Amino acid sequence: MCGLVGYIGKNLSRAPIIKGLSRLEYRGYDSAGFACLNPGDNRLVYVKAQGQLHNLIKQFDQKPIDGHIGIGHTRWSTHGVASQENAHPQFDCYKTLSIAHNGIIENHHMLKEQLMQEGHLFSSQTDTEIVAHLLESLLQIHKKLLPALISLVNQLQGAYALVIILQAYPDQMVVIRKGSPLCIGIGQQEMFVSSDLLAFADITNKVLFLPDQSFALLGKELLELYDFSGAPLLPSIQEVDSAWINVDKNGYEHFMLKEIYEQKGAIYASLAFFRSISHQIWDQVGLTSEQVKNLESIHFLGCGTSWHAARIAQFFFEKICLMPARVMLASEFRYMPFFAEKNSAYIAISQSGETADTLEALRLVNSMHIANIALTNVASSTAVREADGFLLTHAGQEIAVASTKAFATQLAALYWFAHRIALEKGIINLYQFETAQEDILIAAEALENSIEKYKKIIVETYAPYYAQYKKFIFLGRHISYPFAMEAALKLKEISYLFAQCYPAGELKHGPIALIDAETPIFLFSSLDSLVYQKLLSNAQEVKARKGHLVVFAFEGQKELIQLADACFIIPTVNPLLAPLAMTGLMQFFVYHIAKVLDCPIDKPRNLAKSVTVE
Ligand code: AGP
């Protein structure tokens, strides 16, 4: 959430910072800013703009500032509207120091009051500006940077990543991390700072992921790391594999469309990886074979699309591993009573591995010493570093805010993992395990083939037609209910159309009153024969009230197909993989509705790819 980039070194900072910000724009895009120290006189200069990064870039025509030390930011507002004043960087009273920030300073009210009483003048509504004034005040008291920083970090509450430049210290950049991600790229006589290594992955692969609750002083060849008490820490610099980072659209109009088409390949790549680690899997996920054999329950944590993947996986684990599976929204989990269970494990699901709600939930489980695993797409993420063990999907970089291939690979991973646990427990044999792996590939084929089959009619007929409606009801039942929730989320976030999802059996308990000619009903079928019969009754209830029915059905489901006003017929797969088979077509359809409506599909309003605030 928010893109943060800093540079100090032998070269000028503006070009690498703007390039880095453009790669991070998916993290926030309601305003942007750049500040640097003017070479020669070390004067702090800056440019800020409301809106997307290109608005900032335009301003350099009038004000072509640059310097060897600089910071940049793209914002996703938390405190204060999106405006030029509230854009980062923020400053102290005399604009001698400048700060870019990700996260939230939770005690900003109290600090602001105190600073105003001391005479500080504020020019924005942001919590970030408080940090600038507080540091200004602490520098006056302590006279030196290090003690001022120690005092600063001990007064700030919340989760934050901060990058600071100061006129008084032109050869040093300050970076601070508590909770929010921050990494430093080490180059040849230059240092890069960012909230995501994507910003500088093409320049250096030597990275320091700043430990939580630490800060660093950086120079072109300087890296001093401290904990919050001021004790020096030994930096642990890693070499990361950035080969998988691809930030081009490869000819597609949007990243979302490219990522929809990448799904079959991503599932194949993920499965190939799982096969390759199948023998060492327990080391990787941080469990012993004995622990797995004794597992009596499994718990999932996640947000948004990752939570939907967990809700679908609940069916996998209960059916395949024959044990109860529970799913919690990570944002709720911390505030609910916690009943520790014996022989249990938690799986935190997060595409980015940086979602604050999920990380906090994971930390809570960790603090109780209960086995936990991060299922994520980003090997260098905080979730991987903090969990007992991890399982990586191989979807490749997902840039569009709306998650597509990450969701598909999460489903494939969870289906595979449920079978791997069942194999270890002796519930299934090797042949059944092999069959399950083949079933994933069959579902990946179905996912891609159904897009191809309906591509033309969606683009030419269905998308323009359904884009005329303002509200939708989405229905599913059993395993297709969480899938219908994911479909409704996808439509809402990229097209801004209202979509309400219900379990189909609940229709008659109230929502049936909503059926009218203005509200198409999208119904997602199931391959479980009993559930299918029940869904059929629900579809009949809709038609009996002259509802308009759009059906995602499977081959052979004649009765349901006949009831539909519009219908997509998907090849049959293993019933538990029905959601995976429907994934591509559902995403492709809602993508084209949003396209007809001319929405900014890759960067929908108010959203950001990685939600690093609670
Ligand atoms: C998905 O389309 C969303 N943009 C969002 O719900 C996302 O899945 C959620 O914020 C969780 O992100 P994560 O998987 O990176 O933790």
Could you characterize what this model shows?
The chain is of the alpha/beta class and 614 residues long. It has 3 domains: 3-239, Glutamine Phosphoribosylpyrophosphate, subunit 1, domain 1 (4-Layer Sandwich); 247-428, Glucose-6-phosphate isomerase like protein, domain 1 (Rossmann fold); 453-605, Rossmann fold (3-Layer(aba) Sandwich), CATH 3.40.50.10490. It has 19 helices and 25 strands. Strands 3-2-4-1-10-9-11-15 form an 8-stranded antiparallel β-sheet, with helices on one face. A 7-stranded antiparallel β-sheet has the order 5-6-7-8-12-13-14. A hairpin with a 3-residue loop joins strand 9 and strand 10 (190-194). Helix 7 (263-277) runs parallel beside helix 14, helix 7 (263-277) runs antiparallel to helix 15 and helix 10 runs parallel beside helix 14 (405-425). It is globular and about 80 Å long. Residues 303-306, 350-352, 355, 358, 401-403, 493, 610-611 line the site of 2-deoxy-2-amino glucitol-6-phosphate.
Query: Rg, please?
Result: 26 Å
The CATH homologous superfamily of the largest domain corresponds to Aminohydrolase, N-terminal nucleophile (Ntn) domain
Q: What's the architecture of the largest domain, going by CATH?
A: 4-Layer Sandwich
State the separation between the terminal residues, measured CA to CA: 11 Å
Structural class: alpha/beta
Number of helices: 19
Apparent shape: globular
The residue fraction in helices comes out at: 25-40%
Q: How many strands in all?
A: 25
Q: What is the fold named in CATH at topology level of the largest domain?
A: Glutamine Phosphoribosylpyrophosphate, subunit 1, domain 1
Residue-averaged pLDDT: 94
How many independent structural domains?
3
Uncertain runs with pLDDT below 50, 5 residues or more? none
CATH class of the largest domain: Alpha Beta
Strand content: 15-25%
Bound molecules: 2-deoxy-2-amino glucitol-6-phosphate
Largest sheet: 8 strands, antiparallel
